[in-house]
Design a protein that fits this description.
Elements: H1 8-13, H2 15-30, E1 33-37, H3 41-53, E2 57-61, H4 86-97, E3 102-106, H5 115-119, E4 124-127, H6 132-145, E5 149-155, E6 158-164, H7 172-175, H8 187-190, H9 194-213, E7 222-227, E8 232-237
Helix pairs in contact: 3-9
């Protein structure tokens, strides 16, 4: 017998989701459109999690090709796809995992000119890039479109996460005035080890799923900092 609008095939596929999310939650995931900006370390792992969770439409945006330096942490990379476009590989990968999902691959960099068109008609955007100015571009476009943005970043054994809703202080509370931010953060010196990337990407995907389903309160006006070396997890209140 079919219940809640999910077919028996879908109920089998998402059986391990339903105990936590329920059928209504799973239907919300299947009806959602998430944009992931960046298909590298964070982006590739967030993408994997959301494809398997059953997000119905995923737009993934990245202009780069895979390089040997990506192999330590970027889940979508392999020795066989060095030199190939990251978003092309993402779409191929998703087709082997979950045929329910519509993946829109955008071979482009987010800019102030195209940000709104990339985010239009989506429900949420995941910031998975390492350019601080581009993060502000995403935040500003998401704010104008009234779309939540889930921000994450990694440097060494430390990562951070927060959700920014329209009107929130958001990135300014971390980086200061947009006009004076550096291009890169601490990751330029500390690197991005695979274990830290995987841990923070899992938190970013979890936050995204929670916002879509409404099953948890977003990490709003707070910054979650995780230090895997010291096992220290801290939540900072952000000034309004």
């Amino acid at each position: 017998m079919e219940m809640g609008g999910l077919s028996n095939t879908m109920k089998k596929r998402y059986q391990r989701n339903l105990g936590t999310l329920g059928e209504e939650g799973q239907k919300k995931l299947l009806g959602a459109h998430v944009v992931i900006i960046g298909a590298g370390g964070l982006g590739g792992s967030v993408f994997e999690n959301l494809v398997r969770a059953g997000i119905g439409t995923i737009t993934i945006v990245d202009p780069e090709v895979f390089e040997p330096t990506n192999l330590n942490r970027q889940l979508l990379s392999s020795e066989n796809n060095i030199g190939r476009k990251k978003v092309e590989i993402a779409k191929e990968h998703a087709s082997k995992i979950n045929s329910d999902i519509n993946v829109i691959a955008v071979d482009d960099r987010v800019t102030s000119e195209n940000a709104e068109s990339l985010l239009k008609n989506s429900d949420i955007v995941c910031d998975c890039i390492d350019s601080i100015p581009d993060r502000f571009i995403i935040q500003n476009a998401a704010g104008r479109l009234e779309i939540p943005m889930v921000h994450a970043a990694v440097a060494g054994t430390t990562g951070q996460l927060m959700t920014i809703l329209p009107g929130d202080i958001g990135l300014k509370a971390i980086y200061g005035d947009e006009a004076f931010v550096p291009i890169k953060g601490e990751e330029e010196e500390l690197g991005t080890p695979s274990s830290t990337v995987s841990a923070i990407a899992a938190l970013q995907a979890h936050e995204t799923i929670g916002i879509v389903t409404g099953n948890q309160t977003p990490l709003r006006n707070e910054l979650l900092r995780v230090n895997l070396e010291s096992w220290n997890v801290t939540r900072f209140k952000l000034a309004p």
